[in-house]
Write a structure and sequence with these properties.
The chain has one helix at 2-14, and strands at residues 24-32, 34-41, 45-54, 75-88, 93-108, 119-135, 141-152, 159-171. It is mostly beta strands. It has an eight-stranded antiparallel β-barrel.
Length: 172
């Protein structure tokens, strides 16, 4: 993971262009969740698709479903969000917000010593995102901070998981 992050930073800082949103962006994020995203920009909106993992950073790992593994039921997530954004400060900063939908896959181990015995849950629910994106001068790169939440509807109704992450995007 460290190698991917370092290579992404090197890639983002090695090219030059004017700071502005382009048609597409590819990014990496750390926090809750940890993942990669691709964004398609429109006139004042964007479609953001993220794939990654969550670590239960803001939640007690035992409050969803009991799991005796060391990671506390870490899973894989897929999130698609439709966001509206507003450029600020000569388009060097953009504020954005929007709704989305998230699908997760979690694996639970009743006994941490027996990795072959587990159950897997697929969950689904709406999500929401708000964020700020800072564009670097003369670089197609941007730094973003975003937060929000995911409200699971299936299988555990109204289970809420907050999110907060930072990351880098390359706009092309």
């Amino acid at each position: 993971m460290k190698t991917l992050l370092l290579l992404s930073i090197l890639f983002l800082s090695a090219t030059t262009a004017f700071s502005q949103t382009q048609d597409w962006a590819f990014g990496v994020e750390v926090g809750e969740p940890i993942g990669v995203s691709i964004r398609k920009y429109g006139e004042r909106n964007a479609l953001d698709i993220s794939v990654g993992t969550y670590i239960g950073l803001f939640k007690d790992k035992q409050n969803y479903k009991v799991s005796n593994d060391d990671l506390g039921s870490v899973g894989i997530m897929f999130n698609a969000s439709y966001e509206w954004y507003v450029p600020l400060l000569n388009e060097r900063i953009s504020a954005y917000a929007g709704p989305g939908v998230q699908v997760n896959s979690r694996r639970y181990y009743p006994n941490r010593n027996i990795k072959e015995v587990h159950t897997t849950n697929i969950s689904l629910g709406p999500s929401g995102t708000v964020g700020l994106e800072f564009f670097f001068a003369r670089k197609p790169a941007s730094f973003f901070v975003e937060g929000g939440g995911y409200l699971e509807l299936i299988p555990k109704i109204f289970y809420f998981n907050p999110t907060l992450s930072v990351g880098l995007r390359h706009n092309f």
